[in-house]
Amino acid sequence: MNSFPHVNIIDGKAAAARVLAEVRDEVSDLKSAGLHPALAVVLVGSDPASQVYVRNKVLRAEETGICSLEHKLPADTREDALLALIERLNGDPAVNGILVQLPLPRHIDENRVLQAIDPLKDVDGFHSENVGGLSQGREVLTPCTPAGCMRLLRDTCGDLAGKHAVVIGRSNIVGKPMAALLLQAHCSVTVVHSKSANLRELCRQADIVVAAVGRPRLVDADWLKSGAVVIDVGINRIDEGGRSRLVGDVNFDSALGVVSAITPVPGGVGPMTIAFLMKNTLAAARLQHPALHSQPKLPEAPCPSIS
Ligand SMILES: Nc1nc2c(c(=O)[nH]1)N[C@@H](CN(C=O)c1ccc(C(=O)N[C@@H](CCC(=O)O)C(=O)O)cc1)CN2
């Protein structure tokens, strides 16, 4: 194993602060043009982690000048009541973005709820209209975590064309959209998952590894090529020495001996997810008001040709 001379520990908090500063400037431009961007955040139940994420989303919105409208519903809310709320938010011209915090309680059909959101207000980019548009390279709202990862990769590597990227995980929220965005950036993309044969060997070929599989410290140093760039999307809470701590899908300490750049957990990808939610709220406001949409402002504007 060759160790890399200088390792860049990618500071996701600093990168997110830069994105939020861009958002603040754009919000102020939109307000001058008479538009006050607004984000509706819907939380069903009282999952402690979801409560923290929602609180942080509302705080970031306030800091950037976006109006936030919180809808907190009890855990036993019926699916039809949630659908009725979404219908109301879809029809409210003062609401530009709608976010339903996941996971939802088990009695609610997540897919039905996500499909009910107006695709133009779908700031999570989870509606099938936006999912399809992303894979076709259309200018659509893109899931926040993959969009944040792309910004970190571009800041770190510059042009990504020709790089071999391995995405570990095939979720609808991260793995699949991540693969689509890397393809648009002209990477060669391999998607691997829990059932893949030769997971380690495939990873060892990668210039870029995006780990989004939800398995604490799965990726060890001997899975990584010398000089690889690693984006760790995993947020796993484990008990260690009687203490609870957050770790990623990558064994950070061992990877440090091999990689050229890596995101830490916490403080890597997580803060970018919320920063790109604010970007998407602005993009949604512009999509709903085409007169303000003279310049493409989508965070991940697709490349014109994909083949
Ligand atoms: N509707 C959505 N639901 C969920 C999404 C999403 O993008 N849309 N993603 C995750 C949760 N999530 C945002 O909602 C999220 C997760 C983690 C972080 C974050 O900043 N993490 C910190 C650590 C936080 C901690 O100490 O617990 C970090 O990595 O530094 C932000 C947002 C599932 N649901």
TrEMBL record:
Record Gene3D superfamilies: Leucine Dehydrogenase, chain A, domain 1, NAD(P)-binding Rossmann-like Domain
Pathway: One-carbon metabolism; tetrahydrofolate interconversion
Record field: catalytic activity: (6R)-5,10-methylene-5,6,7,8-tetrahydrofolate + NADP(+) = (6R)-5,10-methenyltetrahydrofolate + NADPH; (6R)-5,10-methenyltetrahydrofolate + H2O = (6R)-10-formyltetrahydrofolate + H(+)
Limits of the Tetrahydrofolate dehydrogenase/cyclohydrolase NAD(P)-binding domain: 143-288
Entry keywords, A to Z: Amino-acid biosynthesis, Histidine biosynthesis, Hydrolase, Methionine biosynthesis, Multifunctional enzyme, NADP, One-carbon metabolism, Oxidoreductase, Purine biosynthesis
PROSITE patterns on file: THF_DHG_CYH_2 (PS00767)
CDD domains: NAD_bind_m-THF_DH_Cyclohyd
Keyword NADP: yes
Listed InterPro entries: Aminoacid_DH-like_N_sf (IPR046346), NAD(P)-bd_dom_sf (IPR036291), THF_DH/CycHdrlase (IPR000672), THF_DH/CycHdrlase_cat_dom (IPR020630), THF_DH/CycHdrlase_CS (IPR020867), THF_DH/CycHdrlase_NAD-bd_dom (IPR020631)
Enzyme Commission no: 1.5.1.5, 3.5.4.9
Residue numbers binding NADP(+): G169, R170, S171, I235
Its biological purpose: Catalyzes the oxidation of 5,10-methylenetetrahydrofolate to 5,10-methenyltetrahydrofolate and then the hydrolysis of 5,10-methenyltetrahydrofolate to 10-formyltetrahydrofolate.
Oligomeric form and interacting partners: Homodimer.
Family per similarity comment: Belongs to the tetrahydrofolate dehydrogenase/cyclohydrolase family.
Name of the protein described by the UniProt record: Bifunctional protein FolD
Lineage: Bacteria, Pseudomonadati, Pseudomonadota, Gammaproteobacteria, Pseudomonadales
